[in-house]
Every structure is written in C-alpha cells, then in structure tokens.
C-alpha cells in the first residue's frame, strides 16, 4: 500500500483483529466435599455374604459398631475372618501401637461374644493373645516337651554336638525340675525370676566363686582312683547367665515357631549384671600369667603321662581355648609327618606344619582356624604319634583315640598344688593361658595387635571392620614368627626356672652361681 493512499476505514485495524480475553467467570461457591465412605457398620452375616459375592481385588476390613474392637475381614476368595483390635497403654498411660488377635469364630454372633471376652481381658491389663493361645493345641506343650523340641532345633541348625549337649543339660538340670510340668505359655516373669534366684544360691565343686563359709579357710580334698579331687563347694558365678542365655533362646524360638504368640514371652534380664571376670577387667585386676608362671606349669607336668604333658604344653605354646585343643583329631594335624604328600593347589597356601581346625570345633562354629606350628610343637606331636600311635581319631585320648581327654578337674588340682606361688593362689584356670600368652607377646615381643587377634581367633569383623571383606590374607607367616619367638621365650624361662630349682636343691644361691660369670668378666 502506498503511503499516500488513504486507509480503508472498512478494513479492521490490527488492534481490532486481536482476540479479546474471555470474560472471567462469576465467582461460585466451592463444591462441597463428599463424606468418606465409612467402613463401620452393624455387622451381620448377610452383609458379609453380600460383600463376599462382589469381585474384590483386595481384602476389606469392616469394623463393628456394636462391639468396640471387632473387625471382620473379607478376602477376595470369599473367605472371612474376625479379629479383635485394641491399643494397650503403658504404665504412664501412654498409648502404644494397635495390636490384634484373631478370633476363633464362624459367624458374627460368636465373634461378638469372643470380642467381648477379649475386651474384658484388656480392661484388667491382660493380653488377649495369651488367653486365645492358651486354648490352642500347638501352644499347650509343657516346658519338658519344649526342651526336647528346642534341642532338635539346635541340632538341625548345625550347632556342634557339644553346644547342643551343654544347652540341653542346662535346661534339664536347672529349669526342668521346677518348671517342667508348666505349660510354656503359662510361664510368668515371677517364675523365671524365682528360677534365677534359686540357681544363684547353688554351690558346686566345679564353680570358681567364693568358697562356702565352713570351707573358706581349708580345702577339702578327696581322692578318686588314687588322684586328689578338690571338693570345695564354691558359689556359682557364670552359671546363672549361661542358663539365662538358653532360656531366652528357647522362648525366642517358641515365638518364631508360633508356639507362643508375639509379645507373650516374659521379659528376661541377666541375673548377674556384671560377671566377676568382667568386673576384674573393668577394675584392672584381671589375672595375667607371665612367662615365669608358664615355666612353673611347664615343669609341673614333667612326670605326667605323655598325652597330659603334651596337651598342657601345647596350650602354653598355642593360644587355643581348652576344648578346642582337647578335642584335637589326627586328621587336623598337617605337615608334621615328613612323608606326607602335599598338593599345592594354591601357590600362596601355607604348607608347613600346621593345625587345620574346622569351624565346628572352634568357638561360634563359623570360621576354621589355621594355626602354624613352631618346631617344639611339631616335636611334641611326633612324640605323641610315636608313643601312642594314630590309630584312633583323637590325639589326646586314654581310650585308644575313641574319645577326647576328660580329666581336667583332677589335673587342675595337681597343677595348683605343684604351682603354689601362682597369682591369686588356686583360682587360676587353663583359660588364663590365653590372656597370658597374648599379654606377653605384646609386652615382651612387641607383636602387632592384628597378629595376636588372629592367634586368638577373634572375629574378622571385630578385628578389621569392613576391610575383612577384601583382605583375605591369612598372615600365617607373621603368626609363625610370633609363635616361634614366644617358644624361644618360654624355653629360656623354663631353663632359668630349672637352674633355680637345681640351685635351691643343692643349697647354692643364685648369687653364688653368678659369681664365676662376674669374675670371668
């Protein structure tokens, strides 16, 4: 269009061609919210039948208006079940989470009656699940029956035969006499507390606690087959807590198996809050055997039979637990026989003299232990093979290898009488060997803590944290170096102790023995 041409007034301008905004609608009141469909109604069998006839995709719960806490559940397959729900309160009146129990009812009328009984139980502070489960045949077993089933459970779980036997023995000897005829579901907090109190008053000759008042000043020694036996009655210390562990384990098993409903088992607390050994550790008064003490014990078994002498001395050289080495089998002894053929499937594997103890023999039963043997330990095991043979399975046996050594009680009486100058008199035990070996290896040999922990067979996770998932090295060579140095230290202490005894026997003092050496200097 030419600039001189006048605009066509009939043609709309650009502003006129723009669409105009739609007028805002008039303000209206918000739509009212529809009430939520309530699932609380007066339950009838007809209503449940109609609901079951519908094509449900999931279970539907309906609460009864007539009986508080009664809930009917209709499943997609048409089946129905009745439950009673309640919210218990603590002693301070604080409400807890809802709990529920299934009611054994076939229709609404029976469900209301059983729900009313459950509500009455809640009103007096009783858990309705206990009342319902008490009439369940599966939960009506006695404590004696539960102990037998618990033993089968422990065996099927893969626990060692020794652990299963000890667990059953604790329950049979201490729990069954007083509570064996009680139903397991009827056990109360008072029953368990009374049981623990009774156990804590027991005394036995095998205990390590304080002696009885009439025997505190003098030991009573009897003789069994010509050997002395310490019959001093002492208070039990660890027995109550050991029994507590098995009772708690059995109640947890019964809950998991459905024999006891959840929350019914009584709450158990350790009868001895701090055991004497833990108290001594906290106070810094724990018994520690030094190398001089080990030298006395080493010489104290000189006249014992070969299997006793080698067993005690190996426990000094190798920090095993007592039962781990007592039950040693010839099939676990590797590399001691010079004619043994070794197949090197793993170039990094240790093929020297060693003990390959399987996991089930070690504490916990989860990890095996490979213990390298220093030269003196190898010589001892060869002596055992030469004098007693390898016909049976067990190395330290008096029954031609059929069973392990089982004379520790009489042996400890003899050792304590021959080593009268040990710490804390006659209270030291074989388990103190582990503490002494670990402490001396740290103090005198400056061994690394990680190697000492490996020798003691402590948990990988506790020892290394998450690193143990990646570091799979056994550190066997480092373990052997520490054991070899410890062996040399023990031999040196034994020689010094023998010289001291010879000097005392001949009336020569240690100063007189040292005079020629000073003169030579």
Automatic annotation (TrEMBL):
Which branch of life, at top level? Bacteria
Q: Which InterPro entries match?
A: DNA_brk_join_enz, Integrase-like_cat_sf, Integrase_catalytic, Integrase_DNA-bd_sf, Integrase_DNA_bind_dom, Integrase_recombinase_N, Phage_Integrase
Q: Which residues form the Tyr recombinase domain?
A: 284-485
Provide the species name.
Roseomonas fluvialis
User: Which Pfam family, just one, is annotated for this protein?
Assistant: Arm-DNA-bind_3
Family designation:
Belongs to the 'phage' integrase family.
Q: What is the lineage of its organism?
A: Bacteria, Pseudomonadati, Pseudomonadota, Alphaproteobacteria, Acetobacterales
What protein name does the entry list? Tyr recombinase domain-containing protein
Segments traversing the membrane: none
Asked whether the UniProt record includes DNA-binding among its keywords, one would answer yes
UniProt entry tagged with the keyword DNA repair:
no
Q: Composition bias, kind Polar residues: at what positions? A: 1-13
Spans annotated as Disordered:
1-43, 207-235
Q: Which residue stretches does the UniProt record annotate as biased composition, category Low complexity?
A: 15-31
What are the entry keywords? DNA integration, DNA recombination, DNA-binding
